[in-house]
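Bug: token stream looks shifted between consecutive jobs. Job 1:
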Amino acid sequence: MNLASIDLNLMTVLDALLQEQHVSRAAARVGRSQPAVSSALGRLREIFGDPLLVRTQQGMIPTARAKEIRPLVEAALEQLRAALNDQQFDPLTSTRHFVIAQADVSAAHFLPRILPELRRQAPHVTISVVEAWSNEAVEALQRGQVDFAIGVFAPQQEEFGSKPLVQMKEVCIGDAANAAINNGPLSFEAFLRIPKIILERRDSGTVINSVLSTAGHGSNVVLRLPQFLGAARAVLGTDLVVVIPDAMVEDLPDRDLYSVASLGFQMPEVQVSLIWNRRYNVDAAHSWFRELTCRCAVAI
């Protein structure tokens, strides 16, 4: 095929369509009308000789050919962006804005470690945090809505890069006067008996949730919340407990108001990672921020 006959704008539309899998959202993403994007999709189908996106009851889904070409299109566009942009990134003068998806407790733990160094090295760089747990964060990355995600993630597809930040163990916290957790490690049976708060958000949960799911109605769940810090505050003055990562305990305001008990049963360690879309691997500012984040996290 003669590349001279291909409109480069079609590739940006294709990228948006494969990311969004929705014509209206893709149109909004590239700043074009829905009819224009529908027309572009028709031309793309002719070029590739494939439907690319097929309408189903669940919405538009990519064909096998679309899945095959998606990483190639993303990589090609990112290489072009890198060629067009000035890659001599200077943190001192950059006004780059980064968006990070993470849970509230992750923001409370990592931002105080990252921001002092960020302010010293790049005083004009800004950050927005979007509250999102693992599955939501991955979707936001796929849609290009965020630059990074920090949290606990299942093994990711090849489209994502990943850097481990810290490993944490789960502990049980409650009010300082809660006698149920003041006598050393909790057995699984004792933990099940204690009234508790469970952390969950949409289709994401914590490690302890999967452990409790095997216990059924005996798990004694009183409250379900999507915020770690809100759950920590909610146990005060009650007989409730909640399980959180140990590194987060010292981040709690009024730490002396809490009792902390280790869990005397088998629990996997929690691996907190930084993930991003590999399309930004050649972005100098993006790479710089990744390195800053990893360095500050490891230095904890």
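Job 2, same session, no restart:
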Amino acid sequence: MRTAFALTAASFALALATACGPESEKPDSAAFVDALPDERILINMPMGGDRAVGAMAESYVTTAQVTSDVNGFISDVLDAVDHVTDFEPTWTEADNKFLWGPWSEGGLDPNETALYVEFDEAANKYGWAIIQRPKGSTSDEDWVAVIGGESFPGATEDEGEGMFAVDFDAIAALNPTETVAGKFYSSYIVTADGVAAEAGFEDFTDDTSAPERITAGYRYGQDAAGAGYMDLGYLADIHQDGSLEETIVLRTRWQADGQGRGDMVVFDGDLAPLAYQGSECWGSDFNVVYEENNAELVMNGDESQCAFGDPEWNDDAPEA
């Protein structure tokens, strides 16, 4: 997994050590704010209404749930950045370094937080991080990057690419009330025609008292009209009997009106050396119009009703 937590560590100490010096005239921070990730990297998959889940295509439900989870983590980062950059930066240097903060969320917040952004003109790259240290600390060595990223602006304001990562272990170490652990990461390329991105969880849990951890990867894209795709890869015990976990790789595609198709391969675990494939199509009401799999020898519905006529398998999945 790519990480960004050490990207500008040396710059943090320098910035914070000099931030208390004489205040200079602040240059325009608009370009720095515009370079940070925004809502265009979210997945805008069509969502179903109040129908029974059992009537919906399982691959649609799985993809919709993952979309909600991934969007939730990305939105938390975007909201934090947006909230901070609504204010003027508190410190700048040489027109290429900006600091917002430090601030605290109130008396019960054990930490103070700051946002640091630096532009490397030679590399045409913005490095940025949300950093924290225990409230009351006066040592610059105590600052820890809990979210960090890089952003590369494109030829126009509609283009760009970047990545960021969230270190929940670092957040929990600074705040004993946190129960989330692991890491979340996202990389993205944005153009006028749409977005292509990857996201994933590494050794993740939202309950540190539970033994289970999740490592999963996602690849997704969407065009300007709303049609898109998502690749999911994860481990699960499909037999739910405490035996070995199988690897499940699902490719989902959808049109702007909600019609879609999911093609899945299941392999390894108790299935090794075999691999099984299954496909499912749904209409704009998100209900199944066609399904088949070679594990249970099931074939139901009318394949001509599929929005995508042919199956499409993830490149990382083996042939069944």
